[in-house]
Amino acid sequence: MAEQESFLGDYRVLDLTDEKGHLCGKVLGDFGADVIKIERPGGDPARNRGPFYKDVADPEKSLLWFAFNTSKKGITLDIESHDGQEIFKRLVKTADLVIESFEPGYLDRLGLGYADLEKIKPDIILTSITPFGQTGPHAHYKATDIVGVAMGGLARILGDLGRAPVRMSCEPQAYCQAGIHGAVGSMVAIYHRALTGEGQHVDVSMQEAVELSLMNAVEVFDLMKVNLIGMGQFLISPRPQPLGPLFLRFVLPCKDGHAVLYFVGGMKVGIHSSTELIRWANEEGMALELKDYDFNQWDGSTMLQEDYDGYIALIRDFLMTKTKEDLLEEAVKRGIMMAPCATMADIMENRQLEARDFWEKVDHPELGDVITYPGAPVRSGDTPWKMQCRAPLIGEHNDEIYKNELGFTNEEISTMKSRNTI
């Protein structure tokens, strides 16, 4: 049986990105592209971001670097030097796609912008991932991930009610959104080139990528002139005075963690779910005050907050007697809209993910260890996703590219190293 091909196995990508675009190159590489990560001599600054393997602060042991740079070869090259630029141009002749995240105009000043690259290779695709895009009044503003999250609108709709906005976890959400958009835009440009033979410049704005993750927040403001704000574990049902908004709680504690519960009435699925939950609690002698409650009569437009809070207190007391596993089992059996809030430990031990062989074991021979990574985002029969290798060490593939492919001699490579060109 012939070995199956990958989605992007015929394409080469030159990856010049910093943290804003690392995920873009990883996605393309994991789908089979030959991605060459080009770092400045000495290595990418992102290598110095923790956490680190075994808590040893080392540029070769950054877990962030590991996570976002799989399936890439790694070389070092100073593209600001004349020799470095000439080498880069030689590599462009072999490439289909260049991805970068420099300030707009930076590559143009080096003679490596899109207009320059298409003279070298007319069908080249250049994907630029920047904080605010290539044009507009903010195009030259600098931004970190937290700035992208804030100016994209995501921070303001997160957090607890009445408190300051927050960002989502410590992981780079704006960078990830921009990286995914960069990968998708690059693939669409590759498809367009296959149809027309034309290359193009793909312009990705981190701010716009974040804004596109806000679901209906923009539409709510456009239609109702209401700013969605952080509500924490509540869902707010807006109502006119004198009742005012009704605060609905959807995250509740249980015996060994928390669960998400949709406890409402007034509609078929909610009526069934809430009725079954109360029936289960009653079977164990709890929430008896709600034994005869008719969820068909649930009316959030008139319900008093204190009445709702009383119902939720009864439910919370019952959930505190059950583990997350208990709740999931009965929720599935009884048709209750409830699910456990999984921790990372829960995810790693999840039977569904294990049954689908989701986790990827990646060998790190220099560490003498095998590390578990998240696996395929999608599955396909004829062109399977595959993590090709762990993230590269600094300059790990210099000899392969410079010597074996471009034909530089050992002496020339030594000279380039001494001049800090590579």
Question: What does this protein look like?
Answer:
- With 422 residues, this protein is α/β, with parallel strands linked by helices.
- It folds into two domains: 12-214 and 354-418, 3-Layer(aba) Sandwich (Rossmann fold); 233-341, formyl-coa transferase, domain 3 (2-Layer Sandwich).
- The protein has helices at residues 22-30, 63-68, 82-92, 106-109, 114-120, 145-151, 173-196, 206-211, 217-224, 268-283, 305-319, 324-334, 344-348, 351-355, 398-405, 410-418; strands at 12-15, 34-39, 72-76, 97-100, 125-130, 201-205, 234-237, 246-249, 251-254, 257-261, 338-340, 360-364, 369-373.
- The protein is elongated and about 85 Å long.
- The two termini are 42 Å apart.
Write the layout of secondary structure elements.
Blueprint: E1 12-15, H1 22-30, E2 34-39, H2 63-68, E3 72-76, H3 82-92, E4 97-100, H4 106-109, H5 114-120, E5 125-130, H6 145-151, H7 173-196, E6 201-205, H8 206-211, H9 217-224, E7 234-237, E8 246-249, E9 251-254, E10 257-261, H10 268-283, H11 305-319, H12 324-334, E11 338-340, H13 344-348, H14 351-355, E12 360-364, E13 369-373, H15 398-405, H16 410-418
Parallel strand pairs: 1-2, 1-4, 2-3, 4-5, 5-6
Antiparallel strand pairs: 7-8, 9-10, 10-11, 12-13
